[in-house]
Specification:
Layout (H helix, E strand, L loop, with lengths): L2 H55 L4 E5 L4 E4 L6 E5 L2 E9 L5 E2 L1 E3 L5 E4 L8 E9 L5 E10 L5 E2 L1 E4 L5 E2 L5 E5 L6 H6 L1 E5 L5 E6 L3 E6 L8 E7 L4 E3 L2 E3 L2 E8 L3 E6 L4 E6 L2 E7 L13 E4 L7 E2 L17 E2 L5 E2 L23 E5 L9 E3 L15 E2 L14
Parallel strand pairs: 2-9, 10-19, 12-20, 24-28
Antiparallel strand pairs: 1-3, 3-7, 4-5, 4-8, 6-7, 8-9, 11-13, 13-16, 14-17, 15-16, 17-20, 18-19, 21-22, 21-28, 22-23, 24-29, 25-26, 27-30
Length: 403
């Protein structure tokens, strides 16, 4: 065999061997692929079995927390609630995140719902954790957090008379809102006032922040009046909603109406239809006549201070000093400064002015004043007048207004 032949044979052998190695490698790859596929299948089957076992062990109780996790602008009255289906709640905790103060709540008798015992605070973030069990005793847990509505996006109505108080027949139900009300119809329709005497009661707006309710005539003596504020969720203006759901009531005492004849300078006090006292009174002068019409005595004091400057008197007028104390006069109402928007309560101009009538309706707000009774549904604004009476000593009431 020549060297050339020998070299050709070695090349051929190398080529054949390479082909065998290549085939072997290819065959080995195929076998490995088959073996690997079998292992993956086994792992998939094992995972599926674990999932099925976990599903069998998982609780069937499904907990739902409202408002939803991350919610903002939540209401403070009825928005917060926890419920469960296919199980019963075993415990719920609600905590103010910043103060760490826990909120008390009540679980329903069937164990399927929970809610806070009192309204939540505004502009506050709360965290809720709820636990439940299904019929097999398997536990479930859910967590959530939400933030309540901010004061700038909500409004409240401060009302008088106070809950449980006793007032006179002339006292209107007066609600003062802490923000202007643009949607008056919606707000007024959410407020209900009813009397045990079944009198028709009408609302009247004074501007955009005060709403009064009263019957055409005075309240019936010894009746009970109920006020329902259903303002929660009611939109007073764009982006501003109410947060109140409240019911209060007050009692109407005896009927006491005092009629003043400013020409004769006499006041006649009539209680439950009987004249009980005739009292001499002072009144305005020719240049400063007393307002005429129906007035409501809305508060009472054993002693107060009359300020002539609030009705236009100045020292230079020579009519009255800046402040003149009243000595031990039981019930006095002071006239606030005249308003440029007042359109009712015309002054007396005749030589013998007609009598004016004041109905007792005591309370104690911020400053002494007397209210004029507008006709129900009228568009007129309020004008005040000054009346005073002397009677048996009176006790000053609390001045706190409940929201």
């Amino acid at each position: 065999m020549t060297d050339s032949q020998r070299r050709k044979g070695l090349i051929a052998s190398a080529t054949l061997l390479g082909g065998v190695l290549t085939l072997a490698a290819c065959g080995g790859s195929a076998t490995a692929d088959q073996g690997g596929g079998g292992a993956d299948g086994t792992r998939h089957e094992n995972t599926q079995q674990v999932d099925e076992a976990a599903a069998k062990d998982a609780s069937q109780a499904k907990i739902k927390i409202l408002p939803e996790d991350g919610a903002t602008g939540a209401g403070v009255n009825n928005d917060a609630k926890v419920t469960v289906s296919a199980g019963k709640l075993t415990g719920v905790t609600m905590t103010a995140v910043e103060s760490k103060q826990q909120v008390g709540g009540t679980l329903s008798t069937d164990g399927t719902s929970w809610k806070p015992d009192k309204p939540l605070d505004r502009s506050t973030k709360y965290k809720v954790t709820a636990h439940a069990e299904d019929s097999h005793g398997r536990a479930a847990v859910e967590n959530s957090s939400f933030t309540t509505v901010a004061p700038e996006n909500s409004f409240v109505g401060n009302f008088t008379p106070e809950n449980g108080s006793t007032v006179g027949v002339g006292m209107p139900v007066s609600i003062n809102f802490d923000k202007p009300v643009k949607n008056k119809a919606a707000v007024q329709s959410a407020i209900k006032v009813a009397s045990s005497s079944n009198q028709q009661i009408v609302g009247h707006w004074f501007g955009d922040k005060r709403l009064d309710f009263r019957p055409q005539e005075y309240w019936k003596a010894h009746s009970k009046v109920t006020l329902k504020l259903g303002l929660d969720g009611v939109e007073a203006s764009p982006g501003v909603k109410g947060i109140q759901n409240k019911t209060v009531s007050f009692n109407v005492g005896h009927s006491q109406v005092s009629t003043v004849d400013t020409a004769e300078h006499v006041m006649y006090v009539v209680r439950d239809g009987q004249l009980i006292q005739t009292i001499p009174v002072s009144a305005g002068s020719d240049g400063h006549a007393t307002y005429n019409g129906q007035m409501v005595i809305s508060e009472r004091f054993q002693q107060t201070r009359m300020d002539g400057s609030t009705v236009g008197f100045k020292k230079k007028d020579g009519r009255a000093s800046t402040t003149s104390p009243m000595s031990r006069t039981p019930s006095v109402c002071r006239t606030p400064a005249p308003s440029s928007t007042a359109t009712t309560g015309a002054r007396e101009s005749s030589a013998r002015p007609t009598p004016a009538t004041a109905a007792s309706a005591w309370r104690t707000p911020r400053a002494p004043r007397t209210r004029r009774r507008p006709a129900p549904g009228s568009s007129t604004t309020r004008r005040s007048a000054t009346w005073w009476t002397s009677s048996t000593p009176l006790t000053r009431r609390s001045s706190r207004t409940t929201a």
